[in-house]
Amino acid sequence: MALSQNTATRRRDRRETDDLVLSKGEVNANATNLNALTDSHHAAGSSTRMSLFILLAIFTCSASIMYLVYRNFPELTDDEMKKIKVPKDMDDAKALGTVLSKYKNTYYSQVLVAYFATYVFLQTFAIPGSIFLSILSGYLYPFPLALFLVCLCSGLGASFCYMLSYLVGRPMVYKYLTEKAQKWSQQVDKHRHHLIYYIIFLRITPFLPNWFINITSPVINVPLGVFFVGTFLGVAPPSFVAIKAGTTLYKLTTAGEAVSWNSLAVLAVLAVLSILPVCFQKKLQQKLE
Q1: 76: buried, middle or exposed (CB in 10 Å: 19+, 13-18, 0-12)?
Q2: Full-prediction pTM beyond 0.85?
């Protein structure tokens, strides 16, 4: 009887010891997982901070280049210098147009380079004001040149923004725009075989902001070539409206007046036309299957 009690006691002690070891193992495992999550959080935070630092450095270098561009601009009076700034409203655009038109013929190359560099700079860093430059181009240049210039500046600026996002923007997209980026990624996957038409459609229509398209496209694997061509062609219809309005710049009081009901109707028709090849392609595939 005593032997049985001793055996039971030893078994109980062994179970308690095993439970204690197991509890310590669970505690250690939980501590390890917590440390891993903490390290991951710190790594993500560190990556975001590094991305912001690199972005700031690139912006500073670009701003320095812009300063050099304007240093080579013709000598201006104090009153004219006050008007040389990124337009925030139609009054600023009119004042800027007055100065640029005065020097355009004599210093054609300098004015063109300054306009081009400013437009690309604004598009690259998603700074508001490019719509006023689009309107201003219709006032300064012949329509074909103005349209090509705006489309090229938009395509290059958006592509530079794309490359910036590819280089340093991924941590910020993952941190701040995860849900929206996932939703758009699903849409892109649906249109992967005719992506260029989808990009054109998005550029014509206001469904997604241009800055959002620019910074999320590299994250969801939109090819840069398709992105550039789609942007170049897609911004042409809205730019057509803005440039046309620029021919009567001094009759405008707000940017909204550049868009009429007729212009909206034209944009709607062009948006439908841009998506028609996709519909025809789907029907053709269904028939072949």
Answers
A1: middle
A2: no
